[in-house]
Amino acid sequence: MSLTGLISGVARRMAPTAALAGASYVAAKSLAAFTSPDARPGTSRSMDPLYPSHRPTTPLQKTFIAVGSALMGFGDPTDGAHIAALGDATSNGCFGRMRTQMLSDPTGVRILKERPQIEFNAHEWAQLGSLPEGSFGRAYFEQMRRNGITWSSRPPVRFVDNEEDAYMLLRYRQCHDFYHTVLDLDISVLEELAIKVFEWRQTGLPVGLIASAAGPLRMPSAERTRFFADYLPWALQCGAQAKPIISIYWEEMWERSIDEVRKEMGVWLMPSRNSVTRAENSTARID
């Protein structure tokens, strides 16, 4: 191998690492390099925290957080912490569709009023595992156990500057694993990106669009081809026709049949799955 070829090969190997290191630096410095609004109460930019986990930030800080988190998320699209920070930093002012969906549905209104959160004690979690096979609760329990993840792994919302918006984002985030369950998708990069497309089509939040646009660049060629040929069209159509996921009271559906839940939501599975697999088998309204 020539010296030029050797240098080129090393550069290609080091570039992703260097990019991620730079992204990590940007993300870490984004909160430290600028004075946060709540640190200067005497100025016109001052803002008191609006909820317990709130970190008031300037638009410039949010930009740095978004860029750093996007680059880190590009390095590992399955890392929920970076995707969560990206969602926080890019969602301010983008909750109109979700709010309309919730206020147009009696269940959505009740969720906004009652503010449920996804959490379990040991006994409640064990009860999900004892539900009959084929129930939504049992399917959710098995999906979480199979993938080695827990309900408590979803980060709090920190950078959204409206308390109600922050709750909607938290609800969307905490319910993410339910979407995996009803859509029968795993946590591989390929299927995680399909979920992000579905979520973006449902909510209009920028994080799903950003993740699904950048994520395929990290895929092997065969997976990227499969994503664009199969998963992307399915996720766009299914997300567009399904009932608003943000207005579903998931906690009240544990004992119901998973296929019944899918039909009521108006979703169908990828053709390779073996349950509700076609749009006409769902109760979605197809315009």
Describe this structure in words.
The longest helix has 30 residues, at 3-32. Helix content is 59%, strand content 0%. It has helices spanning 3-32, 59-75, 80-91, 96-103, 106-114, 122-129, 136-147, 163-174, 176-183, 189-203, 206-214, 221-241, 258-265. With 287 residues, the chain is mostly helical. The model is unreliable at 1-20, 30-45 and 274-287 (pLDDT under 50). The radius of gyration is 21 Å and the shape is globular. 34% of the residues are buried.
pLDDT < 50 runs, ≥5 residues: 1-20, 30-45, 274-287
Termini, distance in Å? Answer: 60 Å
Radius of gyration: 21 Å
Number of strands: 0
With helices defined by DSSP (H or I, 4 residues minimum), what is the helix count? 13
Keywords, separated by commas or semicolons:
disordered C terminus, disordered N terminus, 287 residues, mainly alpha
In brief, what are we looking at here?
The chain has 287 residues and is mainly α.
Write the layout of secondary structure elements.
Elements lengths: L2 H30 L26 H17 L4 H12 L4 H8 L2 H9 L7 H8 L6 H12 L15 H12 L1 H8 L5 H15 L2 H9 L6 H21 L16 H8 L22
